[in-house]
Amino acid sequence: xxxxEDGITFVTAYFDLGTFQKGIIxxxxxxxxxxxxxxxxxxxKFNNSVILFxxxxxxxxxxxxxxxxxxSHMTRIINIQQDSLWSFKLAPQxxxxxxxxxxxxxxxxxxxxxxxCAMHVKYEALxxxxxxxxxxxxxxxxxxxxxxxxxxxxxxxxxxxxDLKKDHIAFMQNKKFEKGLLPLDIIGDNMVWLAGGMFLGQxxxxxxxxxxxxxxxxxxxxxxxxxxxxxxLYIMYSKNTKVRARVPIQVxxxxxxxxxxxxxxxxxxxxxxxxxxRPPVGYFGALAL
Length: 289
Description:
Elements: E1 5-14, E2 20-21, E3 30-31, H1 33-39, E4 49-54, H2 57-66, E5 75-79, H3 86-89, H4 91-98, H5 113-131, E6 137-143, E7 169-173, H6 183-188, E8 194-201, H7 203-222, H8 229-236, E9 249-252, H9 262-272, H10 281-287
């Protein structure tokens, strides 16, 4: 493979799951294709290479239009059907798990088996990109299609934080890691340690990390347990797991641990501070944590 460039190639995806609810039924809003189409408009200002996996021709067409201002090599769209992917082939087994009497009930995490599959596909898509050598940068990252919630008016870039360790995978930490929890504790209380909306690392370490993730998913299914990737990650790095994670996590967090998108903010600030004479004050405190 040719010498890799500095920078990050981002992998994202949209798979049509229909309309679903997040949070407490009857109180929280519904999410559907319209929601993600609205959020993904920010990719028109996102000056990084992006690879999109999707089964929606509408989303593929719109994404191509949104990215038209960038050189063609910076955008790749992979049209792929759900039933061809390992992640979605797990749906029948996950559906049976969620149908168990008394199984923890969190919408959509332990209600909608396809939602769980869509969370697992992040790792599968990244693995495909790495194995097929569809990247030219030293770092790769997953980013949710709905990661950028604000309307962007200026072009921006995400760069790796200056303190990122070569052999770690970077995540945003949402809650304190509690030791000694059992998998059922984590799923039963819908616990989150790492935010799954974005993570990044170097290809070789990502491959090992993803292999461990797959093994953890399959181990949990064998034990009639499942939820989303955020619970799988918590279990994967806990002591009470059958799979020992081989790649350490480097966490970034906001002082209140309330910003689910803080890793992206750190990466954006890393780029912005090179171009702004007076960066936003809030970033200084955040980076000093």
